[in-house]
Design brief:
By secondary structure, the protein is α/β, with parallel strands linked by helices. It contains eight helices and 15 strands. Strand 6, helix 4 and strand 7 form a beta-alpha-beta unit. It is globular, with a radius of gyration of 17 Å.
């Protein structure tokens, strides 16, 4: 099975045989103060455990269940806030994009642009993301097999961009439920690009609360342990200081106070699975 070549994002390297990178942060930008405060706390936790870290948050949650749901501050204001995280806290930043126009603009302010799962087959969006030249993280759609991700890879490669990350976030399993087939991680690793496991969206219950999604937070760590044991390039987690008050994806977010314990466990498993020494 191919482990592929690492993808560099600044000083951070994503590789299926390298120590995992944490991609984490609140689902959506709730406010400038909240974003900067949370990013700083996450940076300290990751640094204390010597885990490479990328901050993530969305300026617009364009696929909320209800038209009444909070979506975020919007493109311009959101990118301004993310640029503060990037410049002042010296953190690489990831955010998702929803259109060709957004891809080009977001790439000026972040280090990784993400293709949402629902949009992973949108050819024009994938091509626009590839042409930016920055790293592109493609989330596998809930409706797709891992084998189909080869098509997304081909579209981005056609632009000359090889900085591709693939993320598993579960497959639809009946109504309002997702299930992760761990074989998919191994299959996508065989394509030669770094694979990320999304530990929090994988326990989401899409539309499970009617006008919003539910979640099963208690399964985040068990599934993350399984994925880490298989060996992945990164772990994606939505993390919030108080998930009960989160404006998006609270039920499936990691509680900030639990993160250090989670990462301590996962870091040890990662070292064993990749036969590297834990320092």
């Amino acid at each position: 099975m191919s482990i592929g070549h690492p993808v560099s994002v600044g000083s951070i390297k994503f590789g299926n045989s390298l120590p995992f990178v944490l991609i984490g942060g609140p689902c959506v930008i709730e406010s400038e103060k909240h974003t900067l405060s949370t990013a700083l706390q996450l940076k300290k936790i990751a640094a204390g455990l010597r885990i490479p870290y990328v901050f993530k948050s969305s300026y617009d949650k364009a696929n909320r269940s209800s038209v009444e749901s909070f979506r975020g501050p919007g493109l311009r204001e959101g990118l301004r806030i993310l640029s503060r995280v990037r410049m002042e806290l010296k953190l690489p930043v990831l955010t998702d994009v929803h259109s060709v126009e957004e891809a080009a603009e977001a790439a000026q302010f972040v280090d990784i642009i993400q293709i949402p799962a629902f949009l992973c087959r949108q050819t024009d969006l994938l091509l626009a993301a590839g042409r930016t030249g920055v790293a592109v993280n493609v989330k596998k759609g809930q409706f797709m097999s891992p084998q189909e991700m080869k098509n997304a890879i081909s579209k981005i490669l056609s632009t000359g961009n090889r900085k591709i990350l693939l993320t598993e976030r579960g497959n639809s399993f009946g109504y309002n439920n997702l299930v992760v087939d761990m074989r998919g991680l191994a299959i996508m690793k065989s394509f030669g690009f770094p694979v990320i496991y999304d530990a929090t969206h994988s326990v989401q219950l899409p539309g499970g609360q009617g006008a919003s999604s539910g979640g099963q937070r208690e399964f985040i760590l068990p599934l993350a342990r399984a994925a880490t044991g298989l060996g992945v390039a990164g772990l994606f987690m939505e993390i919030h200081p108080n998930p009960e008050l989160a404006k998006s994806d609270g039920p499936n977010s990691v509680r900030l106070s639990s993160l250090k314990n989670y990462l301590s466990i996962l870091r040890k498993l990662d070292a064993v699975s990749k036969e590297v020494k834990s320092s």
